[in-house]
Each structure stands twice: as C-alpha cells, then as structure tokens.
Target: undecaprenyl-diphosphate phosphatase
Amino acid sequence: MNELLHNLDWVLPLRSDWLTPTMRFFTLLGYEKFILFFLPLGYWAWNRTVFLRLLVLVAITALANAWLKDFWQDPRPDVALRMDHDVGESFGLPSGHAQIAVVLWCWLAYEVRRGWFWLLSAVVVAGIIFSRLYLGAHDIEDVLGGAALGITTLGAFGALHTWKGWREAPAWVHLALIVAVAALAYVTWYGLPPSYVPLLAGLMVGVLYGYRHVHFSVEVAAWRRLLAAVLGALAFLGLQWALKQIGVALSFEGQAWQGLRGLLMGLFVAALMPWLLVRLGLLRAQLQVA
Model:
C-alpha cells in the first residue's frame, strides 16, 4: 500500500508533448495567481454574495492546508520526477491544488445548481488533481489527503452557511472570527508561517469591509458586465504591480507588509473598484445588501 501511495513510476510513460501543455494549464488553475484573478472577476461581474462566500471558503482551506503542510512536513516526490518547479521547498501532504480545487469548484457548482456546471467542475477538479501527479509535484497520498480535507471543509462550511444565526451575525462578529483564526494559526504554526497567511487575513478583512459598505448590482447589459470585468482585471493587475514596486523600493518585507498588501487588495476588490464601476455606469448602484 505504501508503494502504491508514493510511487510515480507509472506516470512517466504517460508523459507526451501534447499532454504536457494540457496538464500545465490545469495546474495553473490551482495556483494563487489564477485564484486571485478569478475571484474578483466573479465578484464584479457575476454575483458578489456568492464570490464573497467563495473567497472566505478558499482562504480558510488554504490556511488549513499551509498549516498542515508545515506540521506534517511530508516530502514531495523526488525532484528528478518533477516538471513543476514553482512549488519551491514546500512540503507535499496535503496537496493544496487538490484541496482548493475541490472546495472552489464544488462549492461554485453547488451555488450555480446546474447539471452542466457540475460536469464542468468535475472535469476541472479531476484535471487539476491528475496534473499534480503528472507533473511530479505530488504523489497519490498527497492528492487524496488534499481532496479529503477539501470535502471536510465543504461539509463544515455548508453547515455554517445554513445556520441562520451565523448569516445574520453583525459584521464585527465575522471580523473577530477572521482575526482570531489568523492569530491562532500564527501562534501555533510549526516554524515561520508563509507570507500568504497574513496576506489572506488582510484580504478577508478588506473584502468583508467593502461587502458591507459598497453595494451594487450586476443586473445590467452583458456588454457592461464584460467591460467591468476587463477593466477591473486590468486595474487589479496594475495594483499588484504597484504594490510589488512599492515593496521593492521601500524594502518592505515581512508579515506586516504582507498583511497590509492583503488589506489593500481586499479594499480594492470589494470597495474601490465596485465604486468606480458604478460611477462609470458599468454596474448599477444598490442601496442595500444583495
């Protein structure tokens, strides 16, 4: 059994010039760059309430994944088998790609409630999970562990979501929980937490603030929603570039800077950009929460 869970020799004969680009595409869908690009687009042009829940869910499961990785310190497959070198020196179990893919796409399918979207989500999740094996970034134990934790996260979040007391709780309760969870993770971390832990905490605080204070509707012409998504995406890329340049120019590093970066990104996504898109007439102002 141990050999089955950790041996990737069976992957090597499957590798080919035509399949490798496909696997690289699927694995890209599980990386931070895509997720931080996809979620704001959905927030601006699809359904801000749904994508707020998705952001919180993804942040929680990403935090749990990073904590468990550093706690278990399970090595990845031999570097000689690896075709994805973006993983750096991080550990293998549980696979973050598998865990986040299950959480993001299955919850989104649950929200959409369409058979075709369930099928699409199943293909994306399977593709992402298999890509991690194909590229030698994880073994079977890693992806099974990540998928299992993703399912567990979905169950817990679903139970919380159906609890009326949680949905109607004041904003400060949600904010306090975010701060408490981030602080608990930080003080119990086995070693130094990765930089995206304070970034995620700051991001959630900023998004929650914007969600509570800047209300808008996407009930506009399709071309307006599309243009809003394009302009928002370009502006978001510009913001990330600007923050990177500021960090380099002023030698800002460390956990505090990452937390501030996350806060600014969250405020941009849920407050500043929606306000601008409403002023431009691409989205419709709304006086109350959707």
In short: The chain has a mean pLDDT of 87. Residues 1-163 form one domain.
